[in-house]
Amino acid sequence: MPTKRKPSPRAAVTILAFVGIVVSLMQTLVVPLIAQLPTLLNTTASDASWVITATLLAGAVITPIAGRLGDMFGKRRMLIISLALMVAGSVLCALTSTLEVMLAGRILQGLAMGAIPLGISILRDELPREKVGSAIATMSATMGVGGAIGLPFSALIAQVADWHALFWTAAGLGALCLVMVATVLPESAVRTPARFDGVGAVGLAAGLVSLLLPITKGADWGWTSPLTLGLFAAAVLIFLFWGIYQLKIKAPLVDLRVTARPQVLFTNLSSMTVGFAMYAMSITFTQLLMAPAATGYGLGHTMVMAGLVLTPGGFVMMLLSPVSARLSARFGPKTTLIIGSLVIALGYVMAFFLISATWQILVASIIVGGGIGLAYAAMPALIMGAVPLTETGAANGMNALMRSVGSSAAAAVMGVVLASLTMPLGPVNVPTLEGFRVTFAFAIGAAVLAAIFAALIPKRAHGAAGTKPVDRERVKA
Q1: Which of 75, 216, 248, 460 has a CA positioned 20 to 30 A from the CA of residue 52?
Q2: CA pair distance 13, 243, nearest whole angstrom
């Protein structure tokens, strides 16, 4: 069979960045519908919240598994499967008004999140050495960009059309991505022939669900309820036995010895805390912009307007990714990650003191977005500079997972804070200004902690990680 002609580096980066933005959109796709979901799906508010939770859980579970499968069976192949699942899930959601079918579709949409670590690994395998740093930086930033622009994108569609149009639009975007990947991108030549660790995959999925489910639903169930505490205890036990099993077998799903290397460990810890700080912006800034003026601090904007105010922050993430690559090439990705984390902290410090006008929140979100762009773009370079070439998919998947864990923790913590510090406004209670400032303090702490973790990453003797030339003579696709 003739070999697929290799696309130009610019074409490969453009396609994979577009894929990253589209799959990231799935996480915020239904946010504008939250208040209406119980009526639209004829269910309770508590059950309707699973429409968001299911996608987050599916995305967290699939990222390390998809990365490992990509290392073994082909990254482009797994990317195509991920996009096909997203399209199928979107169509399923577009055709239903029942909760059970909607949840099935949202789970399938969440399974597409593995596309981002797969795309990062494809770029490392296929691009010339001098192009890898900036390409990976751009791809990594899409994880934040998609979430940032998803809110106004979804709100606008939901406002002018039937709510099912959201999912038809998602299906169309997914199909476009699928066609571009299938027709333009070649399969990576780098493989890791091994037997897939099915037991490890099941164990990791069970542990993650047991951990993330009470984090995301603890506020509804009660943080001291038997179900919440039982799931946390189950997560500890599952991960303990899972870790022992991973250390014993020859071809584990996750090489814990590599993951425990200081460069990988501290990068992942920094990723988790940056993920926490990023999601805090999505939760708190949106609520501030939409809060009624009668609160004394709210700006009374619609969902669409609130999303538009935050959109520039998403674009700044993307625009700064090449800057991050240049900083990493000159000073090392460790330095870039520290700078990015401190910029995020600066943005929240501004928000702590200046949130009385729309432009102030806009500027704060741009600063936070810029820091996220710098930090996210540096993380894959650090990871790929510390793991074998044949494990880049799994390692990037684990790094993406740590960001998801941080985001889930942020959703839980911010939710508890804003639910606890409230004041009456008519028939309902709304968060107080002090409550928002407490959430900003948490975000500042998380960003500073990310900088500390980054500072603990060992220095490397060579330049920017992740730019090593690929041995094209390895196992061919």
Answers
A1: 75
A2: 35
Tell me, what's the pLDDT at 460?
Answer: 60
First-to-last alpha carbon distance for the chain, in angstroms, is 12
Q: Output b/e per residue, 263-290; b: 16+ Cβ within 10 A.
A: bbbbbbbbbbbbbbbbbbbbbbbbbbbb
| Contact present, 345 and 292 (Cβ < 8 Å) | no
Q: Please, are residues 447 and 274 in contact by the beta-carbon 8 Å criterion?
A: yes
- Say which residue the tokens 């501030």 belong to: 288
162 contacts: CB under 8 Å, gap ≥ 6: none
Residue-wise burial string across 371-401, b where 16 or more C-beta atoms lie within 10 A, e elsewhere? bbbbbbbbbbbbbbbbbebbbbbbbbbbbbb
What CA–CA distances, in Å, run from 370 to 14, 22, 144, 181, 405? 20, 20, 11, 29, 21
**Distance, C-alpha 361 to centroid of its chain:** 22
- In this structure, the number of other CB atoms found within 10 A of the CB of residue 255 comes to 20
DSSP-assigned beta bridge partners for residue 429: 424
Calculate the CA dihedral of residues 404, 348, 265, 329 and round it to 10 degrees. Answer: 110
Mean pLDDT by 10 residues, the chain (477 residues): 65 89 86 82 84 84 84 87 95 93 94 87 80 78 74 80 91 95 82 79 89 82 91 95 91 82 91 88 83 87 84 83 84 92 96 90 93 87 78 75 82 81 83 91 96 89 40 40
Cα–chain-centroid distance for residue 411?
A: 13
**pLDDT, position 9:** 78
> Is-contact 176 372, C-beta < 8 A?
no
